[in-house]
Protein backbone atom coordinates (compact mmCIF):
# COMPACT_ATOMS: atom_id res chain seq x y z
CA UNK A 1 0.00 0.00 0.00
CA UNK A 2 1.15 3.55 -0.74
CA UNK A 3 0.49 5.72 2.31
CA UNK A 4 0.68 9.48 1.90
CA UNK A 5 0.60 11.05 5.36
CA UNK A 6 0.19 14.77 5.91
CA UNK A 7 2.49 15.86 3.11
CA UNK A 8 3.00 19.55 2.46
CA UNK A 9 4.94 21.36 -0.21
CA UNK A 10 5.56 25.03 -0.94
CA UNK A 11 6.77 26.71 -4.12
CA UNK A 12 8.07 30.04 -2.91
CA UNK A 13 5.30 31.36 -0.67
CA UNK A 14 2.57 29.37 -2.39
CA UNK A 15 1.40 26.20 -0.64
CA UNK A 16 0.88 23.55 -3.31
CA UNK A 17 0.17 20.67 -0.90
CA UNK A 18 -1.19 21.33 2.55
CA UNK A 19 -1.37 18.22 4.71
CA UNK A 20 -2.41 15.78 1.98
CA UNK A 21 -3.17 12.25 3.22
CA UNK A 22 -4.56 9.26 1.35
CA UNK A 23 -3.77 5.65 0.55
CA UNK A 24 -3.55 3.70 -2.70
CA UNK A 25 -3.84 -0.06 -2.50
CA UNK A 26 -2.32 -2.86 -4.49
CA UNK A 27 -4.82 -4.38 -6.91
CA UNK A 28 -6.80 -1.14 -7.16
CA UNK A 29 -6.86 1.77 -9.56
CA UNK A 30 -6.82 4.98 -7.52
CA UNK A 31 -7.50 8.21 -9.35
CA UNK A 32 -6.17 11.55 -8.15
CA UNK A 33 -8.57 14.17 -9.46
CA UNK A 34 -8.46 17.93 -9.36
CA UNK A 35 -8.36 21.01 -11.55
CA UNK A 36 -5.03 22.29 -12.92
CA UNK A 37 -2.48 23.37 -10.34
CA UNK A 38 -3.96 21.61 -7.31
CA UNK A 39 -0.84 19.51 -6.81
CA UNK A 40 -1.64 16.19 -8.49
CA UNK A 41 1.68 15.90 -10.34
CA UNK A 42 3.58 17.27 -7.34
CA UNK A 43 2.04 14.49 -5.21
CA UNK A 44 3.24 11.83 -7.68
CA UNK A 45 6.70 13.40 -7.82
CA UNK A 46 6.86 13.50 -4.01
CA UNK A 47 6.01 9.78 -3.85
CA UNK A 48 8.86 9.09 -6.31
CA UNK A 49 11.36 11.28 -4.46
CA UNK A 50 11.57 13.73 -7.35
CA UNK A 51 10.75 16.76 -5.24
CA UNK A 52 11.33 17.44 -1.52
CA UNK A 53 8.33 17.68 0.83
CA UNK A 54 7.44 17.59 4.50
CA UNK A 55 5.39 14.73 5.90
CA UNK A 56 5.66 10.98 5.38
CA UNK A 57 5.24 8.70 2.42
CA UNK A 58 5.44 4.94 2.92
CA UNK A 59 5.43 2.24 0.30
CA UNK A 60 4.53 -1.11 1.85
CA UNK A 61 5.43 0.40 5.24
CA UNK A 62 8.87 1.53 4.08
CA UNK A 63 10.32 4.88 3.12
CA UNK A 64 11.56 5.34 -0.44
CA UNK A 65 15.06 3.99 -1.09
CA UNK A 66 16.94 3.04 -4.24
CA UNK A 67 15.44 -0.46 -3.93
CA UNK A 68 11.91 0.97 -4.00
CA UNK A 69 12.44 1.88 -7.67
CA UNK A 70 12.17 -1.84 -8.45
CA UNK A 71 8.78 -1.82 -6.70
CA UNK A 72 7.19 1.36 -7.98
CA UNK A 73 7.44 3.26 -11.25
CA UNK A 74 6.31 6.63 -12.53
CA UNK A 75 5.00 7.26 -16.02
CA UNK A 76 5.06 11.03 -16.67
CA UNK A 77 3.02 12.73 -19.41
CA UNK A 78 6.04 13.51 -21.61
CA UNK A 79 8.90 11.54 -23.14
CA UNK A 80 11.68 10.86 -20.67
CA UNK A 81 14.03 8.69 -22.69
CA UNK A 82 16.72 10.40 -24.76
CA UNK A 83 15.36 11.66 -28.10
CA UNK A 84 18.21 10.09 -30.10
CA UNK A 85 17.48 6.62 -28.70
CA UNK A 86 15.48 4.15 -30.73
CA UNK A 87 12.72 2.24 -28.90
CA UNK A 88 15.02 -0.78 -29.00
CA UNK A 89 17.87 1.16 -27.35
CA UNK A 90 15.47 2.55 -24.74
CA UNK A 91 14.35 -1.01 -23.93
CA UNK A 92 17.98 -2.15 -23.71
CA UNK A 93 18.71 0.72 -21.33
CA UNK A 94 15.83 -0.36 -19.08
CA UNK A 95 16.94 -3.98 -19.27
CA UNK A 96 20.48 -2.92 -18.29
CA UNK A 97 19.44 -1.09 -15.15
CA UNK A 98 16.32 -2.84 -13.85
CA UNK A 99 16.38 -6.42 -12.62
CA UNK A 100 12.55 -6.38 -12.80
CA UNK A 101 12.47 -5.61 -16.54
CA UNK A 102 10.16 -8.14 -18.20
CA UNK A 103 11.19 -8.52 -21.84
CA UNK A 104 8.23 -10.78 -22.72
CA UNK A 105 5.79 -8.19 -21.47
CA UNK A 106 7.69 -5.45 -23.33
CA UNK A 107 7.44 -7.47 -26.56
CA UNK A 108 3.70 -8.01 -25.99
CA UNK A 109 3.19 -4.28 -25.51
CA UNK A 110 5.20 -3.45 -28.63
CA UNK A 111 2.84 -5.67 -30.58
CA UNK A 112 -0.25 -4.39 -28.76
CA UNK A 113 0.63 -0.75 -29.52
CA UNK A 114 2.03 -1.57 -32.99
CA UNK A 115 5.31 0.23 -32.27
CA UNK A 116 8.48 -0.33 -34.30
CA UNK A 117 11.77 -1.07 -32.55
CA UNK A 118 13.86 1.10 -34.89
CA UNK A 119 11.77 4.26 -34.42
CA UNK A 120 13.62 7.04 -32.64
CA UNK A 121 11.98 8.59 -29.58
CA UNK A 122 12.28 12.03 -31.24
CA UNK A 123 10.17 10.81 -34.18
CA UNK A 124 7.21 9.67 -32.07
CA UNK A 125 3.84 11.44 -32.08
CA UNK A 126 2.38 12.56 -28.74
CA UNK A 127 0.14 9.47 -28.72
CA UNK A 128 3.07 7.15 -29.39
CA UNK A 129 5.18 8.90 -26.72
CA UNK A 130 2.41 8.04 -24.24
CA UNK A 131 2.43 4.42 -25.47
CA UNK A 132 6.24 4.15 -25.18
CA UNK A 133 6.07 5.65 -21.68
CA UNK A 134 3.45 3.04 -20.75
CA UNK A 135 5.61 0.31 -22.26
CA UNK A 136 8.67 1.40 -20.28
CA UNK A 137 6.63 1.52 -17.07
CA UNK A 138 4.41 -1.53 -17.45
CA UNK A 139 7.20 -3.82 -18.67
CA UNK A 140 8.71 -3.50 -15.21
CA UNK A 141 7.50 -6.16 -12.78
CA UNK A 142 6.67 -3.56 -10.14
CA UNK A 143 3.85 -3.56 -7.60
CA UNK A 144 2.79 0.05 -8.07
CA UNK A 145 2.47 2.24 -11.14
CA UNK A 146 1.99 6.00 -10.98
CA UNK A 147 0.65 7.61 -14.15
CA UNK A 148 0.48 11.33 -14.76
CA UNK A 149 -2.19 12.33 -17.28
CA UNK A 150 -1.73 9.36 -19.63
CA UNK A 151 -4.54 10.62 -21.90
CA UNK A 152 -3.45 14.24 -22.10
CA UNK A 153 -3.39 15.69 -25.62
CA UNK A 154 -3.66 12.44 -27.53
CA UNK A 155 -6.13 11.31 -30.17
CA UNK A 156 -9.26 9.26 -29.48
CA UNK A 157 -7.92 5.99 -30.92
CA UNK A 158 -4.74 6.16 -28.88
CA UNK A 159 -6.85 6.96 -25.81
CA UNK A 160 -8.97 3.89 -26.41
CA UNK A 161 -5.87 1.75 -26.88
CA UNK A 162 -4.35 3.06 -23.64
CA UNK A 163 -7.65 2.60 -21.77
CA UNK A 164 -7.66 -1.03 -22.99
CA UNK A 165 -4.41 -1.53 -21.09
CA UNK A 166 -6.25 -0.97 -17.82
CA UNK A 167 -8.52 -3.95 -18.41
CA UNK A 168 -5.72 -6.18 -19.71
CA UNK A 169 -3.42 -8.60 -17.92
CA UNK A 170 -0.71 -5.90 -18.17
CA UNK A 171 -2.07 -4.28 -15.03
CA UNK A 172 -3.01 -7.56 -13.31
CA UNK A 173 -3.10 -7.12 -9.54
CA UNK A 174 -0.82 -4.12 -9.40
CA UNK A 175 -1.67 -0.88 -7.67
CA UNK A 176 -2.23 2.05 -10.03
CA UNK A 177 -2.30 5.68 -8.96
CA UNK A 178 -3.36 7.86 -11.85
CA UNK A 179 -4.02 11.55 -12.41
CA UNK A 180 -6.26 12.49 -15.31
CA UNK A 181 -8.60 15.13 -16.66
CA UNK A 182 -10.13 12.66 -19.10
CA UNK A 183 -12.09 10.93 -16.37
CA UNK A 184 -14.78 9.64 -18.76
CA UNK A 185 -12.25 7.35 -20.49
CA UNK A 186 -11.59 5.29 -17.42
CA UNK A 187 -14.38 6.20 -15.02
CA UNK A 188 -15.80 2.65 -15.13
CA UNK A 189 -12.35 1.21 -14.27
CA UNK A 190 -11.55 3.31 -11.23
CA UNK A 191 -11.78 1.69 -7.80
CA UNK A 192 -11.00 4.68 -5.65
CA UNK A 193 -11.01 8.46 -6.05
CA UNK A 194 -9.09 11.14 -4.21
CA UNK A 195 -10.28 14.66 -4.99
CA UNK A 196 -7.72 17.42 -4.42
CA UNK A 197 -8.39 21.12 -4.22
CA UNK A 198 -6.19 23.97 -2.99
CA UNK A 199 -3.57 21.48 -1.88
CA UNK A 200 -5.97 19.54 0.37
CA UNK A 201 -7.90 16.30 0.01
CA UNK A 202 -11.55 17.28 -0.37
CA UNK A 203 -12.98 13.81 -0.62
CA UNK A 204 -11.71 10.22 -0.73
CA UNK A 205 -14.10 7.40 -1.65
CA UNK A 206 -14.45 3.99 -3.28
CA UNK A 207 -16.48 4.29 -6.48
CA UNK A 208 -18.45 1.11 -5.82
CA UNK A 209 -19.51 2.30 -2.37
CA UNK A 210 -20.52 5.66 -3.82
CA UNK A 211 -22.60 4.00 -6.55
CA UNK A 212 -24.25 1.55 -4.16
CA UNK A 213 -24.86 3.88 -1.22
CA UNK A 214 -25.50 7.24 -2.89
CA UNK A 215 -26.23 6.28 -6.49
CA UNK A 216 -23.60 8.68 -7.80
CA UNK A 217 -20.76 8.18 -10.27
CA UNK A 218 -17.37 9.95 -10.15
CA UNK A 219 -18.45 12.80 -12.41
CA UNK A 220 -21.55 13.45 -10.25
CA UNK A 221 -19.36 13.71 -7.16
CA UNK A 222 -16.88 15.99 -8.94
CA UNK A 223 -19.71 18.33 -9.99
CA UNK A 224 -20.98 18.39 -6.43
CA UNK A 225 -17.55 19.11 -4.94
CA UNK A 226 -16.45 21.79 -7.37
CA UNK A 227 -19.81 23.58 -7.49
CA UNK A 228 -20.01 23.74 -3.70
CA UNK B 1 29.12 -0.99 -8.65
CA UNK B 2 28.09 -2.64 -11.87
CA UNK B 3 25.38 -0.03 -12.41
CA UNK B 4 27.92 2.72 -11.69
CA UNK B 5 30.16 1.41 -14.47
CA UNK B 6 27.17 1.15 -16.80
CA UNK B 7 26.31 4.76 -16.02
CA UNK B 8 29.90 5.87 -16.71
CA UNK B 9 29.81 4.02 -20.03
CA UNK B 10 26.43 5.60 -20.79
CA UNK B 11 27.73 9.11 -20.03
CA UNK B 12 30.87 8.57 -22.13
CA UNK B 13 28.74 7.41 -25.06
CA UNK B 14 26.55 10.49 -24.85
CA UNK B 15 29.57 12.76 -25.39
CA UNK B 16 31.23 10.44 -27.93
CA UNK B 17 30.56 12.47 -31.09
CA UNK B 18 31.77 15.80 -29.68
CA UNK B 19 34.74 14.06 -28.06
CA UNK B 20 35.86 12.38 -31.30
CA UNK B 21 35.45 15.74 -33.06
CA UNK B 22 37.72 17.40 -30.45
CA UNK B 23 40.34 14.67 -30.87
CA UNK B 24 40.28 14.93 -34.67
CA UNK B 25 40.41 18.72 -34.49
CA UNK B 26 43.43 18.60 -32.17
CA UNK B 27 45.19 16.05 -34.35
CA UNK B 28 44.52 17.84 -37.64
CA UNK B 29 45.17 21.35 -36.32
CA UNK B 30 48.47 20.42 -34.64
CA UNK B 31 49.74 18.44 -37.64
CA UNK B 32 48.69 21.34 -39.86
CA UNK B 33 50.66 23.62 -37.51
CA UNK B 34 53.76 21.46 -37.97
CA UNK B 35 53.41 21.23 -41.77
CA UNK B 36 52.37 24.81 -42.54
CA UNK B 37 54.59 26.66 -40.06
CA UNK B 38 57.67 24.57 -40.88
CA UNK B 39 57.11 25.08 -44.59
CA UNK B 40 56.59 28.81 -43.98
CA UNK B 41 59.80 29.15 -41.94
CA UNK B 42 61.79 27.27 -44.56
CA UNK B 43 60.38 29.35 -47.43
CA UNK B 44 61.25 32.56 -45.56
CA UNK B 45 64.72 31.24 -44.78
CA UNK B 46 65.44 30.21 -48.39
CA UNK B 47 64.14 33.56 -49.66
CA UNK B 48 66.45 35.44 -47.26
CA UNK B 49 69.36 33.18 -48.22
CA UNK B 50 68.70 33.94 -51.88
CA UNK B 51 68.27 37.68 -51.40
CA UNK B 52 71.27 38.11 -49.14
CA UNK B 53 73.37 35.49 -50.90
CA UNK B 54 73.99 33.53 -47.70
CA UNK B 55 74.80 29.90 -47.03
CA UNK B 56 72.49 27.89 -44.80
CA UNK B 57 75.10 27.94 -42.01
CA UNK B 58 75.60 31.71 -42.23
CA UNK B 59 71.83 32.16 -42.19
CA UNK B 60 71.63 30.22 -38.94
CA UNK B 61 74.46 32.26 -37.44
CA UNK B 62 72.75 35.50 -38.46
CA UNK B 63 69.08 34.77 -37.82
CA UNK B 64 69.10 31.69 -35.60
CA UNK B 65 67.83 28.21 -36.37
CA UNK B 66 64.53 26.50 -35.72
CA UNK B 67 63.24 24.28 -32.96
CA UNK B 68 59.90 22.78 -31.99
CA UNK B 69 59.07 25.67 -29.61
CA UNK B 70 58.23 27.68 -32.74
CA UNK B 71 55.38 25.23 -33.32
CA UNK B 72 54.13 24.80 -29.73
CA UNK B 73 53.73 28.56 -29.29
CA UNK B 74 51.45 28.88 -32.32
CA UNK B 75 47.68 29.36 -32.33
CA UNK B 76 47.16 26.31 -34.53
CA UNK B 77 48.93 24.18 -31.92
CA UNK B 78 47.52 25.69 -28.72
CA UNK B 79 44.08 26.62 -30.11
CA UNK B 80 42.62 23.07 -30.11
CA UNK B 81 44.00 22.47 -26.58
CA UNK B 82 42.26 25.63 -25.35
CA UNK B 83 39.13 24.68 -27.30
CA UNK B 84 39.07 21.17 -25.79
CA UNK B 85 39.58 22.61 -22.29
CA UNK B 86 36.77 25.11 -22.91
CA UNK B 87 34.48 22.38 -24.28
CA UNK B 88 35.07 20.19 -21.23
CA UNK B 89 34.47 23.10 -18.82
CA UNK B 90 31.22 23.83 -20.71
CA UNK B 91 30.38 20.12 -20.53
CA UNK B 92 30.55 20.25 -16.71
CA UNK B 93 27.34 22.29 -16.94
CA UNK B 94 25.87 20.56 -19.98
CA UNK B 95 26.21 17.08 -18.47
CA UNK B 96 23.58 18.10 -15.87
CA UNK B 97 21.44 20.69 -17.59
CA UNK B 98 20.72 18.69 -20.74
CA UNK B 99 18.96 16.09 -18.52
CA UNK B 100 16.53 18.80 -17.38
CA UNK B 101 16.34 21.12 -20.38
CA UNK B 102 17.00 18.76 -23.27
CA UNK B 103 14.18 17.86 -25.66
CA UNK B 104 13.09 15.19 -23.19
CA UNK B 105 13.48 15.38 -19.40
CA UNK B 106 15.85 12.43 -18.99
CA UNK B 107 16.46 13.49 -15.37
CA UNK B 108 13.23 11.63 -14.49
CA UNK B 109 14.71 8.35 -15.70
CA UNK B 110 18.17 8.92 -14.21
CA UNK B 111 16.84 9.78 -10.76
CA UNK B 112 14.39 6.86 -10.75
CA UNK B 113 17.03 4.23 -11.52
CA UNK B 114 17.23 1.54 -8.85
CA UNK B 115 20.73 2.59 -7.92
CA UNK B 116 22.15 5.13 -5.53
CA UNK B 117 21.84 8.68 -6.85
CA UNK B 118 25.41 9.15 -5.71
CA UNK B 119 26.35 6.82 -8.59
CA UNK B 120 24.54 9.13 -11.02
CA UNK B 121 26.61 12.00 -9.62
CA UNK B 122 29.89 10.09 -9.60
CA UNK B 123 29.33 8.68 -13.09
CA UNK B 124 29.10 12.21 -14.48
CA UNK B 125 32.26 13.25 -12.60
CA UNK B 126 34.11 10.10 -13.69
CA UNK B 127 33.08 10.56 -17.33
CA UNK B 128 34.45 14.11 -17.39
CA UNK B 129 37.66 13.12 -15.62
CA UNK B 130 38.23 10.18 -18.00
CA UNK B 131 37.63 12.44 -20.99
CA UNK B 132 40.19 14.94 -19.69
CA UNK B 133 42.74 12.18 -19.13
CA UNK B 134 41.94 10.75 -22.56
CA UNK B 135 42.65 14.06 -24.28
CA UNK B 136 45.90 14.46 -22.32
CA UNK B 137 46.94 10.92 -23.27
CA UNK B 138 46.22 11.63 -26.92
CA UNK B 139 48.26 14.83 -26.72
CA UNK B 140 51.13 12.83 -25.21
CA UNK B 141 50.87 10.26 -28.00
CA UNK B 142 50.79 12.73 -30.87
CA UNK B 143 53.62 14.94 -29.60
CA UNK B 144 56.37 12.46 -30.62
CA UNK B 145 54.69 12.01 -34.00
CA UNK B 146 54.56 15.78 -34.53
CA UNK B 147 58.18 16.13 -33.42
CA UNK B 148 59.26 13.39 -35.83
CA UNK B 149 57.45 15.06 -38.74
CA UNK B 150 59.02 18.38 -37.78
CA UNK B 151 62.57 17.01 -37.62
CA UNK B 152 62.01 15.13 -40.85
CA UNK B 153 61.00 18.36 -42.64
CA UNK B 154 63.74 20.62 -41.27
CA UNK B 155 67.22 20.20 -42.78
CA UNK B 156 69.81 19.44 -40.07
CA UNK B 157 71.61 22.74 -40.69
CA UNK B 158 68.55 24.74 -39.65
CA UNK B 159 67.75 22.67 -36.60
CA UNK B 160 68.93 24.32 -33.39
CA UNK B 161 68.66 21.12 -31.40
CA UNK B 162 66.61 17.98 -31.36
CA UNK B 163 64.06 18.28 -28.57
CA UNK B 164 62.90 15.48 -26.32
CA UNK B 165 59.20 15.23 -25.41
CA UNK B 166 60.07 16.38 -21.88
CA UNK B 167 61.82 19.50 -23.14
CA UNK B 168 58.94 20.27 -25.53
CA UNK B 169 56.45 20.08 -22.64
CA UNK B 170 58.67 22.16 -20.35
CA UNK B 171 59.12 24.84 -22.99
CA UNK B 172 55.41 25.71 -23.00
CA UNK B 173 53.46 26.90 -19.90
CA UNK B 174 50.11 25.47 -21.09
CA UNK B 175 51.62 22.06 -21.88
CA UNK B 176 53.36 22.12 -18.48
CA UNK B 177 49.94 22.52 -16.78
CA UNK B 178 48.16 19.76 -18.66
CA UNK B 179 51.13 17.36 -18.67
CA UNK B 180 53.06 17.94 -15.42
CA UNK B 181 56.58 16.55 -15.33
CA UNK B 182 56.26 14.82 -11.96
CA UNK B 183 53.71 12.59 -10.26
CA UNK B 184 53.26 15.12 -7.44
CA UNK B 185 52.71 17.82 -10.07
CA UNK B 186 50.06 15.60 -11.67
CA UNK B 187 48.36 15.11 -8.29
CA UNK B 188 48.38 18.85 -7.57
CA UNK B 189 47.11 19.99 -10.98
CA UNK B 190 44.45 17.31 -11.41
CA UNK B 191 43.53 17.34 -7.70
CA UNK B 192 42.79 21.07 -7.92
CA UNK B 193 40.95 20.45 -11.22
CA UNK B 194 38.79 17.76 -9.59
CA UNK B 195 38.07 20.00 -6.60
CA UNK B 196 36.93 22.83 -8.91
CA UNK B 197 34.74 20.40 -10.89
CA UNK B 198 33.07 19.14 -7.68
CA UNK B 199 32.47 22.74 -6.53
CA UNK B 200 30.87 23.56 -9.91
CA UNK B 201 28.74 20.39 -9.61
CA UNK B 202 27.64 21.58 -6.14
CA UNK B 203 26.62 24.99 -7.56
CA UNK B 204 24.58 23.21 -10.25
CA UNK B 205 22.92 20.93 -7.67
CA UNK B 206 22.10 23.94 -5.44
CA UNK B 207 20.46 25.58 -8.46
CA UNK B 208 18.56 22.41 -9.44
CA UNK B 209 17.33 22.08 -5.84
CA UNK B 210 16.46 25.67 -4.93
CA UNK B 211 16.31 27.31 -8.38
CA UNK B 212 17.07 31.09 -8.20
CA UNK B 213 17.77 30.98 -4.45
CA UNK B 214 20.05 28.03 -5.20
CA UNK B 215 22.23 30.10 -7.55
CA UNK B 216 22.93 32.52 -4.70
CA UNK B 217 23.50 29.64 -2.26
CA UNK B 218 25.84 27.93 -4.74
CA UNK B 219 27.85 31.10 -5.38
CA UNK B 220 28.12 31.78 -1.64
CA UNK B 221 29.26 28.19 -1.05
CA UNK B 222 31.88 28.46 -3.80
CA UNK B 223 33.07 31.82 -2.46
CA UNK B 224 33.32 30.42 1.09
CA UNK B 225 35.38 27.35 0.15
CA UNK B 226 37.58 29.42 -2.18
CA UNK B 227 38.21 31.86 0.67
CA UNK B 228 39.18 28.98 2.96
CA UNK B 229 41.54 27.56 0.31
CA UNK B 230 43.34 30.84 -0.41
CA UNK B 231 43.57 31.96 3.25
CA UNK B 232 47.08 30.48 3.85
CA UNK B 233 48.32 32.04 0.59
CA UNK B 234 46.84 35.44 1.54
CA UNK B 235 48.24 35.17 5.07
CA UNK B 236 51.68 34.56 3.59
CA UNK B 237 51.20 37.38 1.07
CA UNK B 238 50.40 39.83 3.86
CA UNK B 239 53.24 38.37 5.94
CA UNK B 240 50.89 37.35 8.75
CA UNK B 241 52.49 33.91 8.81
CA UNK B 242 55.44 32.30 7.14
CA UNK B 243 55.36 28.71 5.98
CA UNK B 244 58.12 26.72 4.32
CA UNK B 245 57.10 25.44 0.86
CA UNK B 246 56.65 21.92 2.24
CA UNK B 247 54.43 23.19 5.05
CA UNK B 248 52.37 25.32 2.63
CA UNK B 249 51.93 22.30 0.37
CA UNK B 250 50.78 20.23 3.36
CA UNK B 251 48.29 22.89 4.50
CA UNK B 252 46.86 23.29 0.98
CA UNK B 253 46.67 19.52 0.57
CA UNK B 254 44.71 19.12 3.82
CA UNK B 255 42.43 22.05 2.92
CA UNK B 256 41.72 20.67 -0.55
CA UNK B 257 40.91 17.22 0.89
CA UNK B 258 38.56 18.83 3.46
CA UNK B 259 36.90 21.06 0.84
CA UNK B 260 36.44 18.18 -1.61
CA UNK B 261 35.05 15.97 1.16
CA UNK B 262 32.62 18.67 2.31
CA UNK B 263 31.55 19.40 -1.27
CA UNK B 264 30.89 15.70 -1.92
CA UNK B 265 28.84 15.48 1.29
CA UNK B 266 26.79 18.59 0.41
CA UNK B 267 26.24 17.31 -3.15
CA UNK B 268 25.15 13.89 -1.86
CA UNK B 269 22.61 15.55 0.45
CA UNK B 270 21.30 17.73 -2.39
CA UNK B 271 20.94 14.94 -4.95
CA UNK B 272 19.30 12.54 -2.51
CA UNK B 273 17.10 14.88 -0.48
CA UNK B 274 16.60 18.18 -2.24
CA UNK B 275 16.78 17.87 -6.00
CA UNK B 276 13.64 18.62 -7.98
CA UNK B 277 12.64 17.46 -11.45
From TrEMBL, chain A:
Q: Which Pfam families match?
A: ABC_tran (PF00005)
Keywords for the protein's UniProt record, in alphabetical order: ATP-binding, Nucleotide-binding, Transport
Domain ABC transporter residues, every copy = 2-223
GO molecular function list: ATP binding; ATP hydrolysis activity
Q: Which PANTHER family match?
A: ABC TRANSPORTER ATP-BINDING PROTEIN ALBC-RELATED
What name has this protein been given in UniProt? ABC transporter ATP-binding protein
Q: Which organism is it from?
A: Peribacillus psychrosaccharolyticus
From TrEMBL, chain B:
Coiled-coil segments: none
Cite the entry's keywords alphabetically: Membrane, Transmembrane, Transmembrane helix
Q: Which domain of life is it from?
A: Bacteria
Species whose genome carries this gene: Peribacillus psychrosaccharolyticus
Give the transmembrane region(s).
20-42, 75-97, 118-143, 183-206, 218-242, 248-271
Q: What is the lineage of its organism?
A: Bacteria, Bacillati, Bacillota, Bacilli, Bacillales
Query: What is the name listed in the Swiss-Prot or TrEMBL entry for this protein?
Result: ABC-2 family transporter protein
Amino acid sequence: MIEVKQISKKFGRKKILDGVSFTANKGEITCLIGINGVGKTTTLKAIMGLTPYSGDILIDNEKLTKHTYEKITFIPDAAIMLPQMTIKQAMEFMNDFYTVWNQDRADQMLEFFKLKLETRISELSKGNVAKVNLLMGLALDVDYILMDEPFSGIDMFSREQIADVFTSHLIEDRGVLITTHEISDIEHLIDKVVILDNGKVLKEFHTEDMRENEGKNVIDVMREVYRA
Amino acid sequence: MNRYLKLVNFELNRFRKIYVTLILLTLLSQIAAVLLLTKGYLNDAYETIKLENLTEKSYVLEYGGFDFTHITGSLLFLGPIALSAGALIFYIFLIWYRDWFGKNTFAYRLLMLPTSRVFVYLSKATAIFLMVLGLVAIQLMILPLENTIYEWMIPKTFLNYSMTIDSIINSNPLLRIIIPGTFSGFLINYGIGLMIMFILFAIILFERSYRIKGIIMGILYAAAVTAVFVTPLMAMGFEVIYLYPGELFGVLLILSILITGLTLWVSRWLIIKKITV
